[in-house]
Structure prediction request, 235 residues.
Amino acid sequence: GAVVSQHPSRVICKSGTSVKIECRSLDFQATTMFWYRQFPKKSLMLMATSNEGSKATYEQGVEKDKFLINHASLTLSTLTVTSAHPEDSSFYICSASMMGTLNTEAFFGQGTRLTVV
Amino acid sequence: AQTVTQSQPEMSVQEAETVTLSCTYDTSENNYYLFWYKQPPSRQMILVIRQEAYKQQNATENRFSVNFQKAAKSFSLKISDSQLGDTAMYFCAFMKHVRGGGADGLTFGKGTHLIIQP
Prediction:
């Protein structure tokens, strides 16, 4: 149980285009999902917290107009990188918090490698 | 704001040896959780072990154990009888307690690349 699926696993897009990454909790409901960014051989940096039915909370320094987050249901959150540039190339990982439990574990997706050319 | 520091960028040990990865953190929170995550080459984050700050007893999970020193804000991971499959990046992470339960965003250290030599 507690599986989080992220799609796509890899994507290449052209500069100036937008790309959407999906994060789904397959067997549980997630009130809250989190989006992280990981540069090569670096740590994970929290970008934003996505709450179902409300606006996402962005970390300092993260452009909310560039990284659009939508959490329309209890099992799906999406991250859209708008007007992508090569510097947006990175590994993006989502995680989900299990709703209605005291479980403090965050369940991670398998990540999406974005390359902007 | 919280900070997590891992001072060992890379470590290498022989198979079957015991290895300890260090982690220190800084926070003004009183209720929080600490985690060690493993990230193999597949990049999938795998929870290794978790510690609640209010518990004095150190967490253990089979070959993995922690040495949690709350006053010193230290949280080291010991891997006993290391195996080739333990080769991975290991991240120490901090999470604030969430009122009502559930998970919050994690603050990660920079990671330690652990290599188990045959």
In short: The mean pLDDT of chain B is 95. Chain B has no helices and twelve strands.
